[in-house]
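hey so i finally got around to running both of the ones u sent me last week. sorry it took forever, my laptop kept dying halfway thru and i had to restart like 3 times lol. anyway pasting them below in the order u listed, first the sequence line then the structure token line for each. didnt double check formatting much so if smth looks off just lmk and ill redo it

first one:
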Amino acid sequence: MQIRWSSFHSQYNEAEVKTSVPRSAGVYLLWLKLKNDKWQCFYVGQADDLERRLVEHLVDSEENKCIKTHAKSDVCGFKYAEIAMQSNRDGIEKYLYDHYMPDCNQKDPGGKPMVVNLA
């Protein structure tokens, strides 16, 4: 399945999210810039409201300590894709999880992966 990824946002903060992310359903990737200047995906997720969910990761009450640590970094970015159907989001999230093996995902989302173009 071909999905349309957003442009890469190299600043992950509330202002950037609120001005560039829709309030629609989709999948998203959170990235951390490494010391060698390469980017590494540290979290894969999905949401019914991308803007709301991406902002939630930035608040002090974020329960995932790994996300909380990385999201507060000056070298954190994100990408997203709008995906309306829940079954497609589930399959895409699983595929992205299997591909990137992100450090901050606390558990495998399970299900059958749906192959998509990578971000």
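and the second one:
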Amino acid sequence: MRRIIKFIVKKIPRKYLIKFSFLFSALVSVFYKGNTVECPICENKFRKFLPYGNKGNDNRLCPKCLSLERHRLLWLYLKQETDFFSKKYKMLHLAPEQAFYKRFKKMSNIDYITADLESPLADIKLDIKKMPFKNNEFDIVFCNHVMEHIDDEKKALSEVLRVMKKGGFAILQVPLDYNLEKTFEDLSITNPKEREKLFGQYDHLRLYGKDYPKRLTNAGFKVIENKLIDKFTDYELNRYRLDKREILYIAIK
């Protein structure tokens, strides 16, 4: 299974991965039933999670809702530390994730709009650097694991800030190398193999370091570093398969 998923992630375009992912989960999830790990999003239990990523790292992907570590942590944050599930909000979800999409769509308190350049889950097709929305339109913006794909990060972040209401918040997570003090980027590197070697994936344009929250601050956000991850026991970290290093950066306008 590790080799299969590694091949799928590296070779199949993202829009097709999304389109057929739910069929994949329906076929695979029945073979992983058990009670060793638990997904807090779909609330299903399994003997283990699926491998995922370019390297096919084991025990990461929920076979049912297709959540990864970052999705499960974000869900727990929303449940435990926000009024996301009860208060009226207008929300923009850029590059909507399968683990959240159907659940957010069903929430009566959320005016939910999805957008992406090519995702089949997007209500609106757009370029994040030039979005067709009014100033101060959204209470919440989710835009996870997107910025590493964008050539003009500053323009993209300025657009996210522009469409947010004052006091609104954004979740703008990126893959982050916790051993790297400063983000490494070189837009002159265009070879896919070289990008994968240096940035971790063939379509990534930079490798983010621990200066990422400063980059958000420089873009005009007030950044709160949320360390909910530190509140979980070792049992819970293993049960939910969370990354104990991950910090949630809450970007507030």
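quick thing i noticed on the 2nd:
The longest strand covers residues 164-171.
anyway thats it, ttyl
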